Amino acid sequence: MSEDTNLFITRGEALELLSSSWNPEQEREWISLKDALGRVTAKPLYSQNTMPVYRISQVDGIAVRFSDFMNGIPDTSGWVKGVDYVQADTGDDFPDEFDTVIPVEDTHYDSDGRLGLAKGLTLKAGDCVGAAGTAVRQGDLIADAQVRLTPLHLSMLALSGIYHLEVLRKPRVIYIPTGSELITAGIRPERGQTIESNSLMVTALLEQWGADVTCYPIIKDKPEELAEALDKALQAADLVLINGGSSKGAEDFNTALLRKRADLFRHGVRAIPGRPVGMAIIAGKPVINMPGPTFATFLAMDWCVSGLVHHYYGLPAPQRPKVKVSLTKALEKRPDYEFYFRMMVTGKDGGYEATPLGWDRNLPDSLLKMDAILIVPIGVAGYQAGEEVEVELMCGPEYF
């Protein structure tokens, strides 16, 4: 019997359906600044300090009295350090009687230590002096609410005197690997066994997006054990991920379980690979049943789970950089589905060309050499060799 694609929805429709049905409570918590990288602010953060507190030197040099230069460059051979001038390095305060700084590049000393100034030196009152508050002023906005904090934010927050701050609690995500064929990494597989490796990738992605992750032990394909694990996860998590058992195999019980429990359930998206993804809302929480193959799991994480984690924070999901490439080979696909092609990108003649990594390659050869993803949309049957298309880069274009 042929597949009825009308029962499947697009990725965009699926994410909109889940996001509009999930209204997570955004709890807050206080953390130390040293733990704030990547966290999302709960409220606007304003500077408590004015820096510099008083005026400072903006360069390495010497501080002088501009009044000594009113009639041109004076003879400085008899000047005494600490009396006629003082050292003033970048960021340093200096005595109030001095008001102008000369950069070190415009000074020199003879063999007897006598100060000399560069020929043609021009000077204005207050040169190279930063006024109080030129770095930051009390009350300046450092970060608005719902901002993911970067290393630059941390530096500015410290300068502003903010050492403890209120952030949104990380969403709690529980990952449940399922499958009677799975064994824990570290055990040598025998016939009929497969190493459960997706949890490492899933955990790394979730932590990168700012989630708190718990991985359950492998659950065998037994309906009662699957149901028990799901009930336990729903009690503790904001978002539950189930890996495996999402298709139509004899032991793919997860679809039936979610369909039975869910207030909202959809099975299947119009995208290949990964079309049998299951999406449910149970007790007000999203439960995503991802296909087991590594690339299909990665794609479900990439468009669906990433979207939900960022929805929790009220942030847009990050977008990969895109570049135009010339295809080295023709591509064909079903026009009624989106299709993800794994691409290897190389620089050529000031631009880029991309070669599809075929499905005949093994996982290390296809996934680890994948520089970019080409998403061919619904309604397009393929592209010709030499045609220019836009790909999403897995890293920045500076690497090619």
From TrEMBL:
Pfam families: MoCF_biosynth, MoeA_C, MoeA_N. GO terms for molecular function: metal ion binding; molybdopterin molybdotransferase activity. Residues 174-311 form the MoaB/Mog domain. SUPFAM superfamilies: MoeA C-terminal domain-like (SSF63867), MoeA N-terminal region -like (SSF63882), Molybdenum cofactor biosynthesis proteins (SSF53218). It catalyses: adenylyl-molybdopterin + molybdate = Mo-molybdopterin + AMP + H(+). The keyword NAD does not apply. One of its GO terms (biological process) is Mo-molybdopterin cofactor biosynthetic process. InterPro entries: MoaB/Mog-like_dom_sf, MoaB/Mog_dom, MoeA-like, MoeA_C_domain_IV, MoeA_C_domain_IV_sf, MoeA_linker/N, MoeA_linker/N_sf. It comes from the Bacteria. Its EC number is 2.10.1.1. Pathway: Cofactor biosynthesis; molybdopterin biosynthesis. Its cofactor is Mg(2+). Catalyzes the insertion of molybdate into adenylated molybdopterin with the concomitant release of AMP. Belongs to the MoeA family. This is Molybdopterin molybdenumtransferase. It comes from Desulfitobacterium hafniense (Desulfitobacterium frappieri).
